[in-house]
Each structure stands twice: as C-alpha cells, then as structure tokens.
Amino acid sequence: MRIGSITLPNGLFAAPMAGVTDRPFRQLCKRLGAGYAVSEMVTSKRDLWKSLKTSRRANHDGETAPIAVQIAGTEPDEMADAARYNIERGAQIIDINMGCPAKKVCNKWAGSALMQDEALAARIVEAVVQACLPHGVPVTLKMRTGWCAQHRNALTIARAAEAAGVAMLTVHGRTREQGYKGLAEYDTIAAVKAAVSVPVVANGDIDSPRKAREVLARTGADAVMVGRAAQGRPWIFGDIAHFLATGEERATPLTQDVQNWLIEHLHDHYSLYGEFAGVRTARKHIGWAVRGLPGGETFRDHMNGLDSSAAQLQALGGFFQQLADTHERLPVSYGSVDAGSAGEAEEESAEQDIYLDAA
Ligand SMILES: Cc1cc2nc3c(=O)[nH]c(=O)nc-3n(C[C@H](O)[C@H](O)[C@H](O)COP(=O)(O)O)c2cc1C
Hints:
This protein has helices spanning 23-31, 52-57, 76-88, 103-107, 118-132, 154-164, 187-195, 209-219, 236-246, 255-290, 296-303, 309-326, 343-352; strands at residues 2-3, 6-7, 12-14, 36-37, 42-43, 68-72, 93-98, 139-146, 168-175, 200-203, 223-226. The protein is an alpha/beta fold. It has two domains: 2-251 and 343-352, TIM Barrel, CATH 3.20.20.70; 255-332. The structure holds flavin mononucleotide. Flavin mononucleotide binds next to α13.
C-alpha cells in the first residue's frame, strides 16, 4: 500500500475523528496494528492556527511516520496555505476533508458540502496539490458517496481529484444527507475503485475483521478505514491483520494487556492536554474502553465524577484488576457492542466547534 512515494506497513487505516484521534490515540492505534492514522481535521482559518486546540492538533512530537494531517476549509488559497503551514510542522501527507457532515462545517461550505460544488471542490484540490508539490508531499481526499441519494457524485469528484493529482481517495459509504443513519453502501466505493488508478480506501461501518474482509472483497478497495469501532478497541487493527492473513479470528486480548495499553494511553493523553483538560477529555476514552464489559456502565458513572488523573488511574487499575481475576481475556466480542453508538450527536458535537476552536 503506497501513498505517493510513501510505503505503508499495511492497508488498515484509523479514521480521522475530531475529538478522538489526537496524537496519543493515533499512536496507540499504530502500535496495535494500524498502518496509518490521520489527524483530526485542522481548520484552514489562519487566525485560529495559534489557538490552543489547533496547536495541539498540529503537535506531532514522537508520532510514528507517516504523519498525515487533515485540513478543512472552503477557500482554495486558504487551503493551500493550511497545507504549507502543516508541512512546516511535520505533515508528510495532506488529506482534504470533503466528508464531514457537521452543520457548523457545512454551513460554512466545507466538509461534505463541498461535494455540492464540484468546480470549487476541484479548485481546492488543485490548489492544495500545487502547494504540496514542491515539498514532495502527497495529497489525499476523503469524501462521502455524495450530497444526497439523488446526487451521488463521488465518481465525478474522484475522477476530477485524480486528474488534479491526488495520490489516494477515501470514500465513506454514506451521503451527507444520511449523516450517520442507515447503513453504509459499498457499491459506490466499488465504482470509484474501478474508475481510478490511485489507491482507494473503503470506509463506513467496518466493525469486525470479517466485515473488513467482506468490504475489501465487495469494493476491491486497496485499504479499509475504521473509525467508531476503534474507539475503546484499538486492537481491532491487529485483529483485522491477523484475520486477513490467516482466515482465523484472534482470541480477545488479555485483560491485563488491555489495562496496560489504556494506562499508557492515558499517561500520554494527560501529558498532551495537561491535568485539567486531560482528566475531562480522558473520560470518553475510558468510557469506550469499559463499554460492554461487566460492571462497565456503573464504573463509567463513578469515573465521570473523579477529577484528578491520579484518581482516574487508580480507579481504572481497580476495575481491570477485578475483571482480570475472573476473566483472563477481555469478555467482549465483535458484534456484542454497538460500535455505532458514538453516532451522529457525538460526531456533530465533536466537530461543531472546529471553526470556533475555543481552547
Ligand atoms: C466523533 C467523530 C468525529 C469525526 N471527525 C471527522 C473528521 O474530523 N474528519 C473526517 O474526515 N471525518 C470525521 N469523522 C468521520 C469518520 O472519519 C468516518 O468517516 C465515519 O465515522 C465512518 O466510519 P466508521 O463507520 O468506521 O465510524 C468523524 C466521525 C466521528 C464518529
């Protein structure tokens, strides 16, 4: 699997998720089997680049290569500037977001709203590609299947983007109108794959190794991208790799290993966000990690009331120790938890403030 001149270890991608796929979480996914992880989107609005949130998003200290940064915006020149700015800060791949359904972003004519204006979409891609060319940085594009069921124009946009020089395309198998409702469809992704020669990544509702294999076979895509199913279960990438290589499902991880991964993740998380913001933003990661586990709901309620990192770590240690006493391996299997429960509300609230960017 290659993106321009960059070779990836595999075709298993962690999806960009605002408020989720920060550097600590991307590192964890890469460590547990993802070949690639894209940053949360960074606004193209220059006046917001110095804000705490955007600077955190542009912080790649210690991140495993390749560093891929997603940018979102509406003006070709601004998007080109944003690409250069992120390249200066370590981005080795620039991804353009044409897939975000959040109202805040779409009202400002960015994200998947751009799919409605094919000429503007093409101008943005051209401007970003031209900005990245002198630096040898490949540009990729992430989109949905179209604006609405009547306007599934992913194919048109894919062809235009390829002509403008993008090195890879990711397609989430839903329209903008769908948000996160209904099921992802894979026929449009297959059509895009058949029409272009750059690598195509299939995304949407991949929540198990079997589903990953099914989507790869159905679409002919070069890679799969997993979002919500990796929340709290970042080892899904290793499980998919194992299943694709052997046809066998791996046992669930040792409870002790899961505890260690989570604790290491949290230390990394607190050090990026600091104590106050770190404790608050860690709650969702901890909540996802205990989702579907015996006593998980009660523990999550208790944990949400703790307001120091030391208390969070201690409570987690106790929870997992007790679980390990009765379950050597994590008692959760694919399909037993609704990975889509993150759903629309969460995705919207996570993304809505991208332009407000309050620290
Ligand atoms: C909380 C959340 C935040 C998201 N943020 C972004 C984003 O910043 N950029 C983007 O292109 N897609 C974003 N997405 C969409 C995901 O990348 C992905 O396309 C979508 O979740 C479908 O994949 P899944 O079914 O594997 O979750 C977000 C999704 C969620 C749930």
